[in-house]
Specification:
single chain; mainly alpha; metal-binding; AOX
């Protein structure tokens, strides 16, 4: 037994010596080191030699020094590259074949907006009649009209003379119906394999136009935290409620939006009166509004509110028109949609 133990120890020592020699001659072994692995050898209890607690360790580096430095150098290069690109335009990989071409204004300056392009801008028709009103003629008309009037009361009580905040809140609501209507008409077109008569695009254009109103108002008025919470709650309730109404009766939904736009015109008219009276400062127009509505460079808040009010008047006409079509027993696709009606 003692001979067996001695032979095992010799074999371990020989293997260890040959391992170190091969690693020194070969320039290092690129593998995982065995650390803390022990071989305990015990002899006979009856007076034999006992090798208690003998430990064999291979304390080696798993990689040469040059390879240890490589990840550190790579990380430093990545950090420096990130710092160099900070503040610069994001450049997409050409692998997907998608890249933004150089777009300029009419005066040759670079177009600064990604949310809309120059060919999507327009001059608002401010000559439109903002006093036009659809007289309720049946039960659905009266229901839609009185619902809108009822909802205006808490809004006026909450915002009072804070016209900018009121307008901002109004736009978060006004941008919902076009999206819901366009989405449901889109699904209907897919289900029935029918064209929409251009109404999908017309309603989505309306939703996008209302969203641009909101983006403009945010440049003028920064919402407070509780106003953001109010928007969150109102959007959740209004989206689902309008969705159900549109599924049940599209003509009621469009009539409701028509009256909602009439109230928006009234609100923006009050805003303009406050600017003209000096109650609200007539500050310079935001850059996004100047480019979107093609306003002059010296345009003011009054000019912005004037074109927004004109947009609301056009949305009023489109929705009352859509409701009239359906009250006649026809579908929207049977009448051409007023695309590009600004």
């Amino acid at each position: 037994m003692n001979r067996f133990v001695v032979r095992s120890v010799k074999q371990c020592l020989v293997n260890g010596r040959s391992y170190y020699g091969s690693s020194a001659g070969g320039g290092g072994v690129h593998g995982s080191a065995l650390v803390g692995r022990s071989v305990e050898l015990s002899g006979q209890r009856n007076g034999g030699v006992a090798f208690g607690g003998f430990e064999w360790r291979r304390m080696m580096s798993s990689a040469p020094a040059s390879m240890e430095k490589a990840p550190v150098e790579k990380k430093e290069k990545e950090n420096s590259a990130a710092e160099d690109t900070k503040g610069k335009d994001v450049v997409a990989s050409s692998y997907w074949g998608i890249s933004r071409p150089t777009i300029t204004r009419e005066d040759g300056t670079v177009w600064p907006w990604n949310c809309f392009m120059p060919w999507e801008t327009y001059k608002a028709d401010v000559s439109i009649d903002v006093k036009k009103h659809h007289m309720p003629q049946n039960f659905m008309d009266k229901l839609a009209y009185r619902t809108v009037k009822f909802l205006r009361v808490p809004m006026d009580m909450f915002f009072q003379k804070r016209y900018g905040c009121h307008a901002m809140m109004l736009e978060t609501i006004a941008a919902v119906p076009g999206m819901v209507g366009g989405m449901l008409l889109h699904l209907k077109s897919l289900r029935k394999f029918q064209h929409s008569g251009g109404w999908i695009k017309a309603l989505l254009e309306e939703a996008e136009n209302e969203r641009m109103h909101l983006m403009t108002m945010v440049e003028l008025v920064q919402p407070k935290w509780y106003e953001r919470l109010l928007v969150l709650a109102a959007q959740g309730v209004y989206f689902n409620a309008f969705f159900l109404v549109y599924v049940a009766s599209p003509k009621l939904a469009h009539r409701f939006v028509g009256y909602l736009e009439e109230e928006a015109i009234i609100s923006y008219t009050e805003y303009l009166e406050a600017i003209e009276s000096g109650e609200v400062e007539n500050v310079p127009a935001p850059a996004i509004a100047i480019d979107y509505w093609r306003l002059p460079k010296d345009a003011t808040l009054k000019d912005v509110i004037t074109v927004i009010r004109a947009d609301e008047a056009h949305h009023r006409d489109v929705n009352h028109f859509a409701s009239d079509i359906q009250f006649q027993g026809k579908e929207l696709r049977e009448a051409p949609a007023p695309l590009g009606y600004h």
